[in-house]
Amino acid sequence: MAFLSDTLTRVKPSPTIAVTTKAAELKAEGRDVIGLGAGEPDFDTPQNIKDAAKAAIDAGKTKYTAVDGLAELKAAICDKFKRDNGLDYTPAQVTVGTGGKQVLYNALVATLNAGDEVVIPAPYWVSYPDMVLLAGGEPVIAEATADTAYKLTPDALEAAITPKTKWLIFNSPSNPTGAGYTWDELKALTDVLLRHPNVWIMSDDMYEHLVYDDFEFCTPAQVEPALYDRTLTVNGVSKAYAMTGWRIGYAAGPKDLIGAMRKIQSQSTSNPCSISQWAAVEALTGPQDYIAANNKTFQRRRDLVVEMLNACDGITCPVPEGAFYVYPSIAGCIGKTSAGGAAITDDEAFATALLEEKGVAVVFGAAFGTSPAFRVSYATSDDALREACTRIQDFCAGLR
Ligand SMILES: Cc1ncc(COP(=O)(O)O)c(C=O)c1O
């Protein structure tokens, strides 16, 4: 009898973490490697947030809290949803977890039975399909291509829905493409969902505040109020407030679903770190001006990277609306051979050869369900990005 569970055989380790590990190993060997795999802002957590955490420690706010979040944090989250999204939620409709990741996972575990399907638009964040599998469900991939700037079309959504569909996981701006849906684009998708009353929407709004060029963020429950009763709106402090290590995410939705998620959390992790929760209260209620300042930096880097990648032979890179990723297509590179003699048969071969021959670490598109492409995270310095893109240009120029 196998000791490890059968469920575990259904999932794979995170490919993004694998790339980061490989780049770190090469660096440790003394190789000159530029990592473009990071999924976190390179900015420090703002001082007012750090101070709030220190004050929480000094005030002895170091005990268990309510399982799914402090009353003060839930109040701040309700205010945030009203202020930013025009959505009314009561604290009983709000849950706080150890990162958005735990919140998404709790929701899936709380709702999926064997055979239930979850529609996941590709390119997708690497964790969605595996979380669905761990929770006993079946991921159904609805692919979006470079032609629509990697945004899901209503027809592709309609085609993916079956009588077994329980959820659509929606993510805008997207990890890995940075694509953000306009109000009209999202409305076209919510119109499809109105025709399927059994399908719920899990909206992952983690990159809400990281948007550029006056792009206006919107979320499904706001665009189509008729879907409010079957939408879980997920968000967190990791990306906008540079708080990835603090591990606070949250969601709002129907009370019964929130109660079911609380039950799972009460028997697994209990409350997220009390100190981080107080820091998150400060993040959501304190000054917000550094978000715009950080976004200026991100936008400058996005423009730099998109321009340099589009100058590479064989690469086309859409200009994304948000997040800190770009997702260039490398269709023009497939079938060629690198200067170092590697056959570029697919995007994994491209990424491997790029790392070995030029010391640039990117994550290949197959990891996100759409090939041939790769993901660049531009959450690193302008100098590193310029050097990395120059090396990618050299690599592409050497393809024969
Ligand atoms: C699309 C998306 N959703 C959710 C998360 C989870 O964020 P966290 O668990 O740090 O709140 C991430 C992190 O990379 C992400 O990219």
From TrEMBL:
Instruction: Tell me yes or no: is Hydrolase among this UniProt entry's keywords.
Output: no
Report the enzyme's class at the first EC level.
transferase
Q: Which cofactor does it need?
A: pyridoxal 5'-phosphate
Determine the domain of life of the protein's source: Bacteria
EC number annotated for this UniProt entry: 2.6.1.-
> InterPro entries, from UniProt?
Aminotransferase_I/II_large, AspAT/PAT-like, NHTrfase_class1_PyrdxlP-BS, PyrdxlP-dep_Trfase, PyrdxlP-dep_Trfase_major, PyrdxlP-dep_Trfase_small
Residue limits of the Aminotransferase class I/classII large domain? 32-392
The catalysed reaction is: L-aspartate + 2-oxoglutarate = oxaloacetate + L-glutamate
**Pfam families for the chain:** Aminotran_1_2 (PF00155)
Record-level GO BP terms: amino acid metabolic process
What residue range is the signal peptide? none
What keywords would UniProt list here? Answer: Aminotransferase, Pyridoxal phosphate, Transferase
**Example GO molecular function term?**
L-aspartate:2-oxoglutarate aminotransferase activity
Matching PANTHER family, A to Z?
A: ASPARTATE AMINOTRANSFERASE
**Which proteins does it associate with, and in what oligomeric form?**
Homodimer.
The record's similarity note reads: Belongs to the class-I pyridoxal-phosphate-dependent aminotransferase family.
| Protein name, UniProt field | Aminotransferase
- Which organism is the protein's source? Roseinatronobacter ekhonensis
